[in-house]
Amino acid sequence: MSSLLHQLVTRQSEQRHSQTAIVYKQDKLTYGELEEASNRLAHLLKDAGCRKGDRVCFLIPKTPAAIITILGILKADCIYVPLDTSSPAPRLAKIIDACTPRYLIAGGPIAALLNELMSDESRFQGTEIGWMGEGKIESENFKARFSLDDLKSYSSAGLDYQNTTSDPAHILFTSGSTGVPKGVVITHSNVVHFIDWAVRYFGTKHSDRISSHPPLHFDLSTFDIYGTLSSGAQLHIVPTELNLLPHKIADFIRNSELTQWFSVPSVLNFMAKADVVKFNDFPALERLLWCGEVFPTPPLIYWMKRLPHVKFTNLYGPTEATIASSYYSVPQCPDDDRAQIPIGTACEGEELLVLDDELKPVAPGEVGDLYLGGVGLSPGYWREPEKTNAVFIQSPESPDPNDRIYKTGDLAKIGEDGLVYYLGRADSQIKSRGYRIELGEIETALNALNLAEECAIVAINTDGFEGVAICCAYVPLKDADVTPARLRADLNKVLPGYMLPARWMQFDLLPKNANGKIDRRVLRERFEQEAGNDNR
Question: CB neighbours (10 Å) of residue 180?
Answer without folding.
Answer: 15
